[in-house]
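Box 3.1 A note on notation
Throughout this textbook, protein chains are presented in two layers. The first layer is the amino acid sequence; the second is a token string describing backbone geometry. Keep the layers aligned when reading.
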Amino acid sequence: DHIVCESPRFELKYPSVMRDPLMNALFQDEKAMLPSLPFFLSMTESELTARRERHRLEFGKTSLFLDLVHKETGELVGSGGFREIFVSDTDAAEGRRAEWGCVITPVWQKKGVCAETYAAAIKYVVEEFQVQIITASTTSEVMKGFLSRRGFTVRNSARKDESTGLVWTDLELSVKGGEGGEGGGVGGGKNK
């Protein structure tokens, strides 16, 4: 059960098969997924499990999804990390980039989990992959505010997904100098 990095209260772990049922339940939880990520609710158990398997195959290469686990209780509190990481020489024109995202179980929402695990994950990806730009896409005004307070700026504010009808805001943060805005963009976590 490999710990990738940690924050004061949470371990950010490799996406373990033993947590697949809990993670699948999270992605089927309307309170966690609506209104921002409704497309997960229509996925079958086998599709969700296949998605997790893809995360394991791509882990540390082109993505870095992490299981967020409470240190004291061992409880799974969410999933966070990077859907895509672009760090090859062919990506040089765009810079070394990673797209961050996070989903927290309803019982742990509004308890600082996102901020705490964000800080640890960003620090890790900057140190380990020399990422220079963090991107994020959201349909949530709350998440847009969270990211803006950490120095993200809006790149595109009205990208409509025709298949879901959702309107996405794309944001970006430069971390070239190790800066990350309020809440410790690249600080706040201890890497393993």
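DSSP finds five helices and nine strands in the chain. The CA atoms of residues 15 and 56 lie 6 Å apart.
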